[in-house]
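Quick one: Putative galacturonate locus repressor from Robinsoniella peoriensis, structure tokens please.
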Amino acid sequence: MRVKAKDIAKELGLSTATVSLAINNRPGVNEDTRRRVLDYLESKTAEDESAGGNEKIIRMLAFLEDRPYWDSSENTRTYITFEQASRRAREYGYKMDLVNVIRGKDDIGAFLDECIRDNVAGVYVNAAYMEEDDYASFLNFKIPFVVCDQDFNDLHTDNIMLNNHQGVIMGLDYLYKNGHRDILYFRNTNNFYNMYERREAFNRFMEKKGLQSRRNERIVDIGGGTQEAFEGMQRYIEDKKHIPTAIFSENYEVTIGISKALENNGYKIPDDISIVGFDTIPDTALMDYQPTCICALHDRKAYVSIGRLVERIQGDVEESVKIYVNTELLIGDSVRCL
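--- reply ---
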């Protein structure tokens, strides 16, 4: 796909998300709309070929879970990352396109073969929802690529990741300095790299401060997406389980879900309970407070990743590296000083 989804959307008067669903044959788009998108894409591809276009292409493969629906904010974050990577790629004279890969459902090998047929120069793998079995398809892949948001300990390419440990410890330290010792970590049901790293950082901090006697004893599995986290917190409160002075939430979905449940049951944030969450809250979420949160610099991660990928494409590097992009603490009004 040499044409950007946003350009197709603008030309056809559709949303970028609708175009992406149509191109990747996902549900949620009627057949007439899907046909319009595919016909337009085919015509633009034919124009490129007839013009003898030989553009240098970097492809972003975005791995997603096979969910019945995707939160609109998750799609937005994927496209924000893509746009930042695209701007960086243009500085080097490359164009970018985006292909979503549904893990556990799509044939990864077929997508990699398509990269070869399309003469793609390099691949940016957005691997947050990728697992080690998925990565096996890349072991003999000849096109230069970099992996983001995963660490498969592969010595043949670069891994660019968020510094989850630094972010979690920074958030917990802020709670600690505000007098909080009774802290629980509310996690979702996902078991991917970023989540493992955040839980490990929480355990280390709590053990170092002498706030827990065994690993994971203060980690609560509250549910998957926003609705599941809300329902899980509702049950947690109804079962009269321990309410701490502070909660560290694993991602923005958990933050939104537990906040709504707490408020629904008469708890005030931060008067009754303080919250620090990993990830900024999407603008689409209407919150009654300004969350204190760990800001994951996804745009910076994309910027660094494309730089390393271009160096690999041009043959300027032989070594493989792991790069950790630090996070920032955004202080809101969700933490009370005890």
